[in-house]
Amino acid sequence: xxxxxxxxxxxNTIAGxxxxxxxxxLNRVNxxxxxxxxxxxxxxPGYAESGPLIVVFQRGAADGLAILSPLNDPDFNAAxxxxxxxxxxxxxxxxxxxxxxxxxHPQAGHLAQLFESKKLLAWQAVGIKNExxxxxxxxxxxxxxxxxxxxxxxxxxxxxxxxRKKNLSDAEQSFVHLYGGSNNLPxxxxxxxxxxxxxxxxxxxxxxxxDAGLRAxxxxxxxxxxxxxxxxxxxxxxxxxxINELLPKGKGNKTLPYxxxxxxxxxxxxxxxxxxxxxxxxxxxxxxxxAWIDQLGWDTHENQPGRIHSLIQNLGHGLTxxxxxxxxxxxxxxxxxxxxxxxxxxxxxxxxxDHGHGSLAMVMGSRIPGGQVLGRWPGLxxxxxxxxxxxxxxxxxxxxxRQSMSWHAS
Length: 410
What we know:
This protein has one domain: Alkaline Phosphatase, subunit A (3-Layer(aba) Sandwich), CATH 3.40.720. The chain has 12 helices and 12 strands. Strands 1, 5, 6, 7, 8, 9, 10, 11 and 12 form a 9-stranded mixed β-sheet that branches. Strands 2-4-3 form a 3-stranded antiparallel β-sheet. Strand 3 and strand 4 form a beta hairpin. The termini are far apart.
């Protein structure tokens, strides 16, 4: 006879786990050390030699016009007051592309250096072709890999869909191969097993009540082995146990902080924390194929100058730390920096910018043709603007992803 309480527990457990281990099931008590059920990582086949494909997502709609600005454009200067712009002399560097001069924001020094060293490329006027200015709709489209919510044919995130196309073996599917660098599971990763979403691995991965809590969960999943969620829970717990076993330990079996192989240290802010955790997994040879890492805070309706300074600085610092770390470890990867949509050309009365259309995307990695600006710049004259207020989209974000995947596979 089926025990309804046990079944309900299994259902609630799987619901919690799909939200991300840091958000629900695994964020309360440290544990999972010295467990005998951990699989040997050597038995997990199929690690992609090209390394992971990563998205750093500027959640909230990043103002690409502020990151890489056309300071010689009279339409740009007329639309933005001095406090919403910066001087050419304070810029981190200039790029000439198709007859237009673009200047890096003063806080984008790391981005400029990555560009100059041909580790990074810029892609202007990128976005969704859909005209929505809704965060919810735009983020759903981007994370589902769609041009319209009406065209969705499944419930998968696009990274989960790409993973399913790989025809992975049972061992590969059951072990962690998709990583989310936040405590909430990104929509892009939802729909397949083998997902781990936890922002910070510096202290390992925790579950309620430690070893005893793990044993209770496994016992219940085994008792209800016919439940569709039972195998997933069992595989997920074993994956987490394996990762915790592999993390270096110090006195008292305490997990040691990650040490980068690069010259630039990771900071304790986003996206550095998620990138550092991904680097930890890669150093352990966890077969991560896709990763999604959020950087929050880009919805700058007011006081944009001060807010965007730190956002740009943190973004560039995190990317530099990761690039140096991966290069030192000879770890291949491809990383796309993107947002759901851009912001208005004209500033508002609160020294901010409202929801717009086109924005700036960037691609970084070991196989990309860095040091160049891609995409067609549409200009900022009133006849060139979308709805006469926003930077027009000349490259669909899906084309950026397709091209990035092509470089990644080369």
